[in-house]
Design a protein that fits this description.
two-stranded antiparallel sheet, Rossmann fold, alpha/beta, 6-stranded parallel sheet, EC 1.-.-.-, 8 strands
């Protein structure tokens, strides 16, 4: 069996990000498997200007694309911003496309300060399907995040179990036989237009 590469794309720029903490936890669970390598893609560390298809990509974009393309499974983690996913994650995903995501397993995780958290998961599922990724049915929504973490640790058992399950599913489904292309992906002309 070949090495399985699992990455987490962290869609938060906050220093004390609950999203980053949850992504790290999921990757730690994935890393417990034999022949698994994990990669936390922290968007704070990459130079990603606002996407513009008329401009040459800076080195940070090249690094992002290479790291996402190298992954067999990618966890998309985001805070809930105004009922959707973060702009920084949207910008990173705008740089990506079929080359990075086609036939890749994708897991979804959203962290909300309040109770509302399902819409960002739906939005990310649509984006992933549009680039022909295979999205894991199990997803995670951590609501009321500040009460779920203590000293950088996810202490809420129910949510911790869901994050751990997501970490396992990223490995277990990393090489699933992909579905035929989705209608969304066949209609997606890509970022060149």
């Amino acid at each position: 069996m070949d090495t399985i590469h699992v990455a987490a794309l962290v869609g938060s720029l906050r220093e004390a990000s609950y999203t980053r903490l949850a992504c790290r936890r999921a990757l730690a669970v994935a890393d417990e498997y034999d022949r698994v390598e994990t990669d936390l893609i922290d968007l704070r560390t990459l130079d990603l200007p606002t996407y513009n298809g008329d401009r040459d990509d800076p080195p940070g974009v090249t690094e992002l694309l290479e790291r996402v393309a190298a992954a067999d499974a990618v966890l998309l983690g985001t805070p809930n911003y105004h009922g959707s996913y973060s702009g920084v994650l949207k910008n990173a995903l705008d740089y990506c496309g079929f080359d990075e995501f086609e036939d890749t397993t994708v897991g979804l995780l959203v962290v909300a300060g309040g109770a509302y958290s399902s819409a960002p998961l739906d939005h990310l599922r649509i984006v992933a399907r549009s680039v022909n990724a295979w999205v894991i049915p199990h997803q995670v929504a951590i609501q009321g995040a500040s009460s779920r973490f203590e000293d950088g640790v996810l202490v809420d058992e129910k949510h911790a179990e869901r994050v751990d399950t997501l970490g396992r599913r990223l490995v277990e489904y990393a090489n699933i036989e992909p579905d035929p292309p989705t209608q969304e992906s066949e209609s997606n002309v890509g970022a060149d237009d």
